[in-house]
Amino acid sequence: MPSLFDPIRLGELELANRVVMAPLTRNRAGPGQTAAPMAVTYYAQRASAGLIISEATQVHPLGQGYLDTPGIHSREQVESWKPVTRAVHERGGKIVLQLWHVGRISHVSLLPAGEVPVAPSALAAKAKTFTKDGFVDVSAPRALALEELPGIADQYRVAARHALEAGFDGVEVHGANGYLLDQFLRDGANRRTDAYGGSIENRARLLLEVMRAVSDEIGAGRTGLRLSPMTSFGDLGDSDPQALFGHVAEQLAPLGLAYLHLIEGETGGSREVTANGKPFDYQAMRTRAKTPWMVNNGYDRALAIDAVADGTADVVAFGRPFISNPDLPRRLREDAPMNALDADTLYGGGAKGYTDYPALERAAA
Ligand code: 8OZ
Questions:
Q1: Which atom of ligand 1 approaches the CA of 129 most closely?
Q2: Atom 2 in ligand 1: which residue has the minimum CA distance?
Q3: Among 54, 69, 147, 340, which is 20 to 30 Å from 162 by CA?
Q4: Smallest CA separation from ligand 1 atom 11, residue
C-alpha cells in the first residue's frame, strides 16, 4: 500500500513525500508586490513538505485583488523570488508558484489608476476584499472584450516563464475559488454570448487555452491546476458542476499535467456539499482526467493516511496545519502534537504568526 510518507513523481516533479503545503495567502508582500525577505525564512522553514505550493501570485497588475499579495509580472518581482526558491532547494525541498488572476474579486484602490476589475461579464460579485481601508465590497467589473482574451492566456504564459527564471520547479494555475478562470467556467458569473460563454465547451475554453499556453511554455510535467468544483467562494454558482468539471478533466487529460489539485467541498469549510441534491463525484472526474490527484480541504492525519493508502488520492495538500507547524510532515509521521493556529495573524502583519511557529525540537525544549 502506498504511504503518505513515500516519495512520488508528479510529472517532472520528484517529491520526497506526499505531504504538500497548500497555497496560502498571507498578505505580507514587500514594496512593488515583491516577495519580502521574511518569505525566504517562512518557505525555508517548510521545505520538508514533499512540495510547497506558493501563495497565490498575480500574473498581471489587474490580477491583484487583495492588499499586499505578491506578483510575478515585473523584473523586480522575479528577482525577489530567487532567494525563496534557493533556500527551499538548499533544504532539499520543491516549490511551485501559484499563478493567480482575481478577475472581478478586486477593488479599484488595488488596481492601476483608472482601471476597474475585469471579468467574463459585467456582473459584480456579492463579495468583500481586503484593502488598505479594511474589508470593502468588491468594485463593479467590466467584461473583457473577445480581443483581450489571447492576452490573458499570454499573461499566464509569461508568468510561467518568469517562475522558472525565478527558480521555481513549476507552476500551479489557480483555477479555483471564484477567481478569473473559475468565473469563466461557471454560468453564474459567465453570461457571454461569444465563443467563451454559453455551453460548457465555451466556458471551459479560456482555462484550457491558459493550460495549453503554460504547458507549451514550461512543459506540462511542471504544470499543475487547482480547481474547487463545489465551492461557493466568489459568489459564482453553476447549474451542473459535475458535467462542467468532467469536461474540463477530459480535455486536460491529453496534456499530461503534473497534477490536478482538488479542493473537496466548501473552501476552508464543509467537505459535505451537494449540487442539485447530489454530492460531487470526485473519482468520476479523476477517471476522466487520468492525472496525478492531489486532494485538499480539512484533511487530518488519519484521513490523509487513509486517502493515500486506499488510492483515493496520490498526494494530500494541507493549508492551515502548515501555517502553525513548519515541520508538518515529521509531526504527521511521528503522530506528534500540533501547534495551535493563531487566527489573528493569518493575513498581513510581520513575523508574528508567520515565521515564529516552532519546529518540534524547539517546542520540546
Ligand atoms: C484567503 C484570502 C485571500 C485570498 C484563495 C487566494 O482563496 C485565495 C485567498 C484566500 O484561493
A1: 3
A2: 25
A3: 147
A4: 177
C-alpha gyration radius of the chain: 19
Residue 126, Cβ density class (10 Å: 0-12 exposed, 13-18 middle, ≥19 buried): exposed
- Mean pLDDT value of segment 256-261: 99
Q: Determine if ligand 1 sits within 6 Å of the CB of residue 66.
A: yes
Give per-residue pLDDT as tens, 153-182.
Answer: 999 999 999 999 999 999 999 999 999 999
Cα(24) to centroid of ligand 1, in Å? 7
CA gap 61, 111 in Å, rounded: 7
* Choice from 24, 28, 66 to test ligand 1 binding pocket (greatest atom count within 8 A of CB): 66
The pLDDT of residue 363 is above 70: no
Instruction: Examine the pLDDT at 365 and tell me if it is beyond 50.
Output: no
- Is residue 179 part of the annotated active site? The answer reads yes
Atom of ligand 1 nearest to the CA of 347: 2
CA 336 / ligand 1 centre spacing (Å): 29
Nearest alpha carbon, ligand 1 atom 4: 25
One-letter amino acid for residue 283 of the chain: Q
Q: What is the pLDDT of residues 22-48, one digit of tens each?
A: 999 999 999 999 999 999 999 999 999
C-alpha cell at 69: 499579495
Q: Helix (H, G, I), strand (E, B), or coil: what is residue 173?
A: strand
At a CB cut-off of 8 Å and minimum separation 6, what does 254 contact?
A: none
Extract the C-alpha cell encoding 215: 504547458
Q: Which of 25, 54, 105 to mutate to test the pocket of ligand 1 (most atoms within 8 A of CB)?
A: 25
Model confidence, pTM: 0.98
Task: Count Cβ atoms within 10 A of the Cβ of residue 365 and give its class: 0-12 exposed, 13-18 middle, 19 or more buried.
Answer: exposed
Domains assigned to the chain: 8-364 (3.20.20.70)
DSSP 60-91: SGGG--STT--BSSSHHHHHHHHHHHHHHHHT
